[in-house]
Design brief:
Elements lengths: L12 H31 L41 H7 L23 E7 L3 H13 L4 E6 L6 H7 L5 E5 L2 H8 L18 H21 L4 E4 L4 E4 L8 H6 L7 E4 L1 E4 L9 H4 L2 E3 L7 H6 L1 H5 L13 E5 L4 E3 L5 E3 L6 E3 L4 E4 L6 H8 L17 H12 L2 H11 L5 H10 L2 E3 L2 H12 L1 H7 L7 H7 L11 H4 L30
Parallel strand pairs: 1-2, 1-4, 2-3, 6-12, 7-13
Antiparallel strand pairs: 4-9, 5-13, 6-9, 7-8, 8-14, 10-11
Length: 509
């Protein structure tokens, strides 16, 4: 039996050559990629270190011009940055934040317009520094701080006095005597707020301090002045860049006053410690909502509270510095010789962080010596929610007070939040939070505190000790200014103008 052998057909020479080349290519390609990766890693691949982007924002001049400690930013290890929004916000080449620049805030002398903010405060550094440096970021150059209480203490005032562009004014006997002779104290348009305690007293102080601030601002060559509390942040939406300076620069030259409608913080927890860094939800002002939306969802928006906003709703104003400018209460400005031309902005606002911390209930209670009755609280507070909050804080237990706070202030109903967010009544605003968080991470606040001198203007400080806190039982107006009390009213100059604009609630349903 014959055996059969099967032999394979040999490959053509061209096919064998192609396979050899393919195998060689597949062997060389991974090796080449590995070598390339090694070279890139060793040489840095031509990609700059993310931390070196700081240098792109370094202004002209020496690194020594930075805030104390800020020169260390460029040497921070990459792992500390994580490319978070807060950090990259200031390190991109985007023009959106023209005053970030290493947090130096070294504005050029000819930068216009020059903007100043005046405030009357008793807050601590934990509130004042974020508030102040946020406004430096958006272009404010000068601050006039009328300080009392904690703000006038040695540890706080020594830091404030060390910051360029800050003028600290203590409530000294000399200041009170000067204000007793001031023009607005001896006129009648503010007289309706005299001789009453607590919020009325604060309103009078603010107005008198604003009058002083106008003089200082004019002497310093300022172009615009704004009165803000230290729980309020200007939100310059609508400008070509996130800049208050740009916003005011774009206005027509004949505008005398700009109204910023206020948005009110809408907190979502009862344990907030730092509102500027933790609150992102706000309730829009009536002026920025369609009327049908505002009134159509009014009851759901108030959640059983007396008004649409917990506190005021008539915004704050910026005024152009000019002859005969005067305050018209804490919320507006006016002029003795003409009716100022004013505009109200369609997008920009003032963010008001009111009652954002649970402790705000007891702190208001502790600084106002009124009886917790519906009649007596009218002497102390202008707005209904303030009155209700004072009464509950004065009469309820800690547990009951927390429960009341959760019901009336905290937004815990997610379905209601989502509904009102969709309708535009509630809105999310993150930029101020990002800026302030970026300031914290960069060490600006720590550097300012650490490098402040251990002393302060001792003469001013010591003379202010007896006057730094108003009496809790007698109003500032009758006790300190023009001690003649209401008998002085007949001697005041009567002007043919309306009374000062008080804090007002938004329209009711």
């Amino acid at each position: 039996m014959a055996s059969h052998f099967h032999r394979s057909t040999p490959l053509p020479p061209t096919t064998h050559s192609f396979l050899s080349k393919l195998l060689l290519l597949l062997t060389i390609l991974p090796l080449s990629l590995a070598v390339l990766a090694f070279v890139l890693q060793w040489r840095g691949g031509g990609v700059s270190d993310p931390t070196s982007a700081v240098s792109r924002w370094t202004p002209r001049g020496s690194r020594r011009e930075l805030f104390p400690g800020m020169e260390k930013l460029s040497s921070l290890p990459t792992k500390n940055h994580h490319h978070s929004d807060c950090v990259d916000l200031g390190r991109s080449s985007s023009p959106s934040f023209p005053y970030y620049r290493d947090w130096k805030f070294g504005f050029e002398a000819d930068l216009r317009p020059k903007i100043c903010i005046t405030t009357s405060t008793s807050a601590g550094l934990d509130q004042i520094l974020p508030w102040m440096f946020y406004h430096k970021v958006i272009g404010v150059t000068t601050f006039y701080l009328f300080v009392e209480g904690q703000a006038a203490s040695l540890n706080v005032s020594r830091v404030l006095e060390s910051i360029p562009g800050i003028k600290v004014i203590y409530r000294t006997k000399e200041l009170e005597e000067q204000q007793a002779k001031s023009r607005i104290w001896n006129e009648t348009w503010l007289a309706g707020f005299f001789y009453k305690p607590c919020n009325y007293e604060l309103f009078v102080k603010q107005s008198l301090n604003m009058e002083n601030a106008i003089v200082m601002a004019r002497d310093a060559g300022m172009d615009w002045i704004i009165h803000l509390d230290t729980d309020e942040l200007v939100y310059p939406a609508g400008a070509s860049e996130y800049s208050l300076r740009q916003l005011l620069l774009d206005l027509p030259s004949d505008v005398d006053m700009v109204i910023f409608p206020n948005y009110e913080s809408s907190i979502e927890r009862d344990d907030i410690k730092d509102p500027f860094s933790e609150v992102s939800m706000f309730k829009k002002n009536y002026d920025h909502l369609p009327k049908e939306t505002y009134f159509g969802y009014y009851r759901e928006s108030t959640r059983g509270n007396p008004n649409y906003f917990l506190t005021y709703g008539n915004g704050k104003a910026a005024a152009r510095i000019q002859d005969e400018l005067r305050p018209n209460g804490a919320h507006r400005w006016h002029n003795y010789i003409k009716a100022p031309k004013e505009i109200k902005l369609d997008e920009a606002a003032v963010l008001h962080y009111t009652y954002a911390k649970f402790s705000a209930l007891t702190s208001r209670r502790d600084r106002c010596a009124c009886k917790p009755t519906k009649e007596d609280v009218k002497r102390c507070f202008m707005l209904e929610f303030d009155r209700a909050a004072f009464i509950i804080a004065s009469t309820a237990s800690e547990e009951e007070l927390l429960h009341w706070y959760q019901e009336h202030v905290v937004w815990g109903d997610n379905n209601l939040k989502l509904k009102l967010l969709r309708r535009g009544i509630l809105t999310r605003i993150y930029i101020p939070m990002a800026i302030i968080q970026g300031l914290k991470e960069s060490g600006v606040f720590r550097s300012v505190i650490a490098n402040a001198p251990t002393t302060v203007s001792r003469d001013k400080f010591l003379s202010s000790i007896d006057n730094s806190n108003s009496s809790r039982t007698v109003s500032f107006a009758s006790r300190k200014i023009g001690g003649g009390g209401e008998k002085q009213a007949s001697g005041r100059k009567v002007l043919g103008i309306e009374a000062a604009v008080p804090p007002l609630s938004p329209p009711v349903l």
